[in-house]
Write a structure and sequence with these properties.
With 277 residues, the protein is of the alpha/beta class. The protein is 32% helix and 22% strand. The model has no long low-confidence stretch (mean pLDDT 96).
């Protein structure tokens, strides 16, 4: 039987939105990988943040995507050299987003003269801790291809900012649960598609083309729409991400993260002939 690729968001999906706990999900992940399925992070988090969690959950031999699909990483101990990748320690790295975090910081400094926005990199650690509940925010700020901002201006000006971002730098604004990310064109759907393609090339016939994706917010919508089995995690706002009206096989949790992650996968598993665990 073919195995599954399970793509997952982290904050508010696999992890508690407030304290970042993964609860009992490590046990579920162990069952998933023991059945030879793969769990793939597709997250807005940075490499520095992701790598620690991968170790804790015994997922270091899985590829993953960071900064909302800006960068992809494939472990060398399992993947052959990936086309268009660079050597990055234990990983092959593919860069999707063109401009660096430094480029975006310079751009945003100029835009601060026109718009009311806060650049996370420039905020005092005390303020960042209030927004994130993180004791140490340095890993969150260790970005390679993006910057994150807090918008304090009007919706009218937000539209103007998006237009200037697009036409001046071919950039995009991605709405996350806490911050907005500014980067070159990238998203979790593009990352998911490329990772799936590389699996198909290197492990042809092993993994099902019917992919699974889990998410809870707007920046997960593209990824969820592209999955065969989109799994929506209940979030504190009370609203699930709004998928295409004709989208099928949607599964929703009744619990918040982290419990909702395992709950919705068990719900999906009960409907599948080829089981996840």
């Amino acid at each position: 039987m073919k195995k599954y690729l399970i793509f997952t968001d982290l904050d508010g999906t696999l992890l508690d939105h407030e304290n970042y706990s993964y609860g009992n999900n490590k046990k579920t992940i162990t069952s998933i990988i023991n059945n030879e399925n793969d769990v793939i992070f597709n997250t807005s988090k940075t490499f520095s943040e992701s790598i620690n969690l991968l170790k804790k959950l015994n997922l270091t031999n899985m590829p993953f995507s960071t900064e909302n699909g800006a960068l992809l990483y494939f472990p060398k101990n399992r993947f052959k050299k990936v086309k268009n990748s660079s050597d990055y320690g234990k990983y092959w790295k593919i860069r999707i987003a063109k401009l660096s975090s430094k480029n975006w910081h310079q751009f945003l400094l100029k835009k601060q003269k026109k718009f009311k926005l806060l650049i996370a990199q420039d905020l005092p650690s005390k303020i960042l801790k209030k927004y994130t509940n993180l004791d140490n925010t340095s890993k969150m700020l260790n970005r390679e291809a993006s910057q994150i901002i807090l918008w304090e201006d009007s919706l009218v000006n937000l539209k103007k900012f998006k237009n200037e971002l697009k036409f001046e730098k071919q950039g995009v604004l991605i709405q996350g649960s806490r911050f907005m990310q500014v980067s070159s064109v990238c998203n979790k759907r593009i990352a998911k598609k490329l990772i799936s393609h590389i699996y198909d090339n290197q492990f042809y016939g092993t993994y099902s083309k019917n992919t699974i994706a889990l998410g809870d917010s707007k920046n997960d919508i593209d990824m969820l729409n592209s999955a065969s089995y989109p799994c929506l995690i209940k979030n504190p706002s009370g609203f699930f991400p709004k998928l295409r009206t004709n989208k099928k096989n949607i599964f929703k949790s009744s619990q918040f993260a982290p419990d909702g992650w395992s709950q919705v996968l068990y719900k999906l598993n009960n409907t599948l002939e080829n089981k996840i665990f």
